[in-house]
Write a structure and sequence with these properties.
It contains three helices and four strands, in the order βαββαβα. By secondary structure, the protein is of the alpha+beta class. A four-stranded antiparallel beta sheet has the order 2-3-1-4. Helix 1 packs across helix 2. It is elongated, with a radius of gyration of 15 Å.
Length: about 110
């Protein structure tokens, strides 16, 4: 019986829906993640090379396991078009998540 691993959400911003969709399809197909949600309509205001910039972006939230998170981050970094992408790791904790974690573990790896 497979041991249930704790879950993790990865948060990442992408320049557009098309590149985010390609990245999401790859990490789910390659079993680095169980699911990726892409949220559109975000405006980013950020400092880059000592200037304040504004750009449209999309957010990707990736559902994976704690044990697969580092490999998923590495793969997303390879797929990502940004020179310095943000891929933040957020743990999923709590007893109420048992069914979610079972599904997650069946889908990853």
């Amino acid at each position: 019986m497979k041991k249930i691993s704790d879950g993790a959400f990865l948060y990442s911003t992408w320049p557009d829906k098309e590149s985010a969709t390609r990245g999401a399809h790859a990490i789910v197909a390659e079993r680095f993640a169980a699911c990726a949600n892409i949220l559109g309509g975000m405006t980013a205001i950020y400092r880059w090379e000592n200037k304040v910039e504004t750009a449209d972006e999309v957010v990707m939230i990736i559902k994976t396991t704690k044990s697969a998170a580092l490999a998923a981050i590495a793969r997303l970094s390879e797929l990502h078009p940004y020179e310095t992408p943000v891929i933040a790791h957020l743990p999923v904790e709590g007893d109420s998540a048992a069914g979610f974690l079972a599904w997650l573990n069946d889908s990853v790896g």
